[in-house]
Write a structure and sequence with these properties.
Blueprint: E1 2-5, H1 18-38, H2 46-66, E2 69-80, E3 83-90, H3 105-119, E4 125-130, E5 134-141, H4 144-153, H5 179-182, E6 192-199, H6 211-217, E7 220-226, H7 251-261, E8 266-267, H8 272-283, E9 288-299, H9 301-307, H10 309-320, E10 324-325, E11 328-329
Amino acid sequence: MSLTFVTPLGALIALVGLIPLAVLVVEDRRLGALCKKLGLRPPTWRPSVEVGVALIVLVAVLALALAQPVIGSHTTLKGRADAEAFFVFDVSRSMGARTANSPTRFDQARRDAKELRARLGNLPVGVASLTDRVLPHLFPSVSVNAFNATLDESLAVDRPTMSLDYGESTGTKIGALADLVNGNYFEATATKRVAIVFTDGETLKERLSTLPARFKDGNLHVFFFHYWSPDQRVYNAAGQIDPAYLPDPSSTPILDGLAQSTSSRVFEPGQVGQAAAAVRAVIGKGPTTARGRELNSFLLAPYVLLFAILPLGFLLFRRNFPYQVAGQSL
């Protein structure tokens, strides 16, 4: 367990709160000097000290809260030793298609993927992107935090972009999924291998016919989530329809054909429960081993701010109920 500060320099902002303390000290000295000249007894120092201490405590509490202290701890995570999965996301421009005022195909895919990942428990899951090539972004891990962070921060429509000429209307090559077998994406000990591909199925036809044999050689079972509708369009930043894109109706028979030739399935958006059951049927049960550590964090700033109620309440009390000495308020 360790204590760290997210924004340590933020504590410097609280130093502004020392200005009232400086004013209090200066005014107290001026009042004492004036009383001395007039031959009067100076006021007791107790009210000023109490207010000064309250100000110092308040500033210290605010400084600590602005530094955002976090208690961190690590938990050892166990995962399947004999099984791994990759979630592969089509990020070509067509995955930005949507109907008016609805999520894009990619946003639907990301939502389904997070829910599916949560249902797979201790199965190590990696993340890859698919355009005209497959790129790994996270190798199989049991950390849900790492999975969600990769999905939220590393992937987006047309990011990473395809290497084809930008004028190409189709930027996806599903045939590139063979790289999952050729590129050593899985640990050698992972004898049960699964890939879940989130795509609209709009693809160039290169290497498609060789995929079933490649998947069989690599002992890889591939499932597909299909995001496609004939009324979906790509919209630009101004909300206008991009005339260069039209939905490709051949996407459905292409994915259905691949699923049939590989004894797999194609899932529709939202069919996460069915997909989780299909994956569990493939991987079955097996041994587990330590597969990494999960960082757990607990933000202390809200609780530190609650403590600021004490000095702040005292200052408000002193303002409304001044210190009394011999019937005089100070």
